[in-house]
Design brief:
The structure is a single chain. The protein is of the alpha+beta class and 519 residues long. The protein has three domains: 6-55 and 166-234 and 347-384, FAD/NAD(P)-binding domain (3-Layer(bba) Sandwich); 98-159 and 241-337, D-Amino Acid Oxidase, subunit A, domain 2 (D-Amino Acid Oxidase, Chain A, domain 2); 420-515, no CATH class. Helix content is 31%, strand content 24%. The protein contains 15 helices and 20 strands. It has helices at 6-11, 27-38, 67-71, 75-91, 108-125, 138-144, 164-177, 302-316, 371-384, 427-430, 446-455, 461-468, 471-474, 476-494, 500-508; strands spanning 17-23, 43-46, 62-63, 96-105, 134-137, 153-162, 181-183, 186-194, 197-204, 210-220, 241-252, 261-264, 273-278, 281-285, 289-290, 325-336, 352-357, 360-364, 439-441, 444-445. The radius of gyration is 22 Å and the shape is globular. It starts with 5 loop residues before the first helix and ends in an 11-residue tail after the last helix.
Length: 519
């Protein structure tokens, strides 16, 4: 996948004026691009940095209906999410799979309430249920997870787990195959109305080159950064989004061995805490801290780190040491700002779609699980408003298998260390590329780097080690050691500066050393 200059790329677009230009290459934007392309529309998508580089690669890795939303009374949201959970599991089984969750309660009354709620949650899934909801005695809990501190009893239920960054790439490649034109490292610098739509000025973030694209409709799907691009005619008196920061710790599986997830529905201050197996490690999270800004690479605060260490000890029975932490990463959730008086933990993840001007849609909120439903709703909004005609052909995205799909069940789950199984149907062809027998670390080989450069838009070391392969999110120091060789391969494949020095600086933010004496 040779990267053309921006001018050549724009000139190669098949239509002088495209139907839809999507700004933002996260779950929502990629979902819209795929939906529109399968409808037979002309589609262009641009992403300022890299696909899924923001919230969409920093999720909690849970494909879920939302147990907490059920407790808040959002029945419709839970039903939709459970339906969409089943859809994603079916469309990308190599990247999304069922996972059992254990909830331990210390008191009889809380156990009774939790049991009833989770039984209802399981029943609402109906035929899309992933497994039985089971009541667990204290003795059974101790056998399953001996480290848990003196539970009264527990419940085991089922939800979904997924690999978010690679699912985003599966969406991107599916949209590309359907006829969409996607480009990363390309930001929007100006949008102005035209008689037939909009003129959008683009800037290549790697070369500085600029060009313009004409489009009938613009979809602003930039997540927590949505307000920066909203059309001036939008009448939002307050910010559309309230960013909420979630911090996650990754530790070695030997430090905290798990083969199923454990969930603490309410810590001492009312937040949710969980630990789950992910790509051969154990992921612990999360905080829920309101922010008034939205940096591209947010940092954990000392208070958040102390909270996670303390609650891991108190609620999960594991006393972490600083040296146990292999990576720290932070995601910003785009919470729709409908209830300013509420704490961020209480704000619904329901999405918001607003028509700022004719042919200009802004969409935000929601969650990974419901990306497909959000994309459908965006395109329906454009049609109902008269911005686009009825689709030339039905999309059927609930039946469209995502790139990498394999008919046979995956032999290796995403709980296990990363390997070729994450590439799905691409695995066989990757094994034929040069360097398949030269491992770089954590399951990554030279051939996978070449494949990512040729077919997955990987240009920089960060693209490769943060999202095409999750080394930075699993072991930041290992990522630093692997980076020079990865940079050499990317340079050889693309001829573009892979920005090694920038990656080395960024990777320090994922280490506990960067946070000084926070603990």
């Amino acid at each position: 996948m040779t990267r053309k200059s921006l001018h050549r790329w724009v000139q190669s677009l098949p239509l002088q004026i495209t139907d839809v230009l999507v700004i933002g290459g996260g779950a929502t934007g990629l979902g819209v691009a795929l939906q529109a392309a399968l409808e037979g529309r002309g589609v262009v998508l641009v992403e300022a940095r890299d696909f899924a580089c923001g919230t969409s690669s920093r999720s909690t890795k849970l494909l879920h209906g939302g147990v907490r939303y059920l407790a808040q009374g959002h029945i419709g949201l839970v039903r939709e999410a459970l339906r969409e959970r089943g859809t994603v599991l079916r469309l990308a089984p190599h990247l999304a799979q069922p996972l059992p969750f254990v909830v331990a309660e210390k008191h009889g009354w809380s156990w009774a309430i939790t049991s009833l709620g989770l039984k209802l949650y399981g029943a609402m899934a109906g035929r899309l249920g992933l497994g039985p909801t089971e009541l667990l005695s204290a003795h059974t809990l101790h056998q399953l997870m001996p480290q848990l501190p003196k539970p009264f009893a527990g419940v085991r239920y089922w939800d979904g787990q997924f690999e978010d960054a690679r699912l985003a790439l599966a969406l991107a490649r599916s949209a590309d195959s359907a006829g969409a034109h996607l480009r990363n490292h390309t930001r929007v610098t100006h949008i102005e109305p035209q008689p037939e739509g909009w003129r959008v000025t683009l800037c290549d973030g790697l070369s500085g080159e600029t060009a313009t694209v004409l489009t009938r409709c613009v979809v602003n799907a930039t997540g927590v950064w949505i307000d920066a691009l909203r059309h001036p005619s939008a009448h939002a008196k307050t910010p559309t989004v309230r960013p909420s920061q979630g911090v996650h710790l990754v530790v070695d599986r030997q430090t905290f061995p798990l083969d199923q997830a454990v969930l603490v529905p309410k810590t001492s201050d009312g937040r949710v805490l969980f630990a789950l197996p992910w790509l051969g490690s154990t992921l612990i999270g999360t905080t829920d801290t309101p922010r008034t800004d939205a940096p591209s690479d947010p940092l954990a605060t000392p208070a958040e780190l102390r909270y996670l260490f303390e609650q891991t000890r108190i609620s999960l029975g594991v006393a972490l040491r600083p040296k146990d932490v292999r990576s720290i990463w932070v995601g910003l959730r785009p919470l729709v700002n409908l209830h300013p008086q509420h704490a961020s933990a209480d704000v619904s993840r329901e999405h918001l779609i607003e028509r700022d001007a004719p042919g200009f849609i802004s969409v935000t909120g929601g969650k990974w699980t419901t990306y497909r439903a959000m994309a459908e709703a965006v395109m329906q909004t454009l049609v109902k408003a008269g911005d686009l005609p009825t689709a030339p052909s039905p999309a059927h995205t609930d039946q469209h298998r995502l790139h990498g799909y394999r008919a046979s069940a995956p032999s290796t789950g995403i709980q296990q260390p990363p390997g070729l199984h994450l590439l799905g149907s691409d695995a066989d062809s990757v094994a034929q590329l040069p360097g398949h027998d030269r491992p770089l670390g954590l399951g990554l080989t030279e051939s996978i780097v070449r494949h990512s450069a040729r077919h997955e838009w990987a240009i920089t070391v960060e693209d490769m080690l943060a999202r095409r392969w999750r080394v930075l999110f699993l072991d930041a120091q290992l990522a630093q050691r692997m980076a020079p060789r990865v940079a050499d391969i990317l340079q050889e494949e693309t001829g573009i500066d892979p920005q090694l020095d920038a990656f080395m600086l960024l990777s320090e933010q994922y280490t506990l050393n960067h946070h000084g004496d926070a603990l």
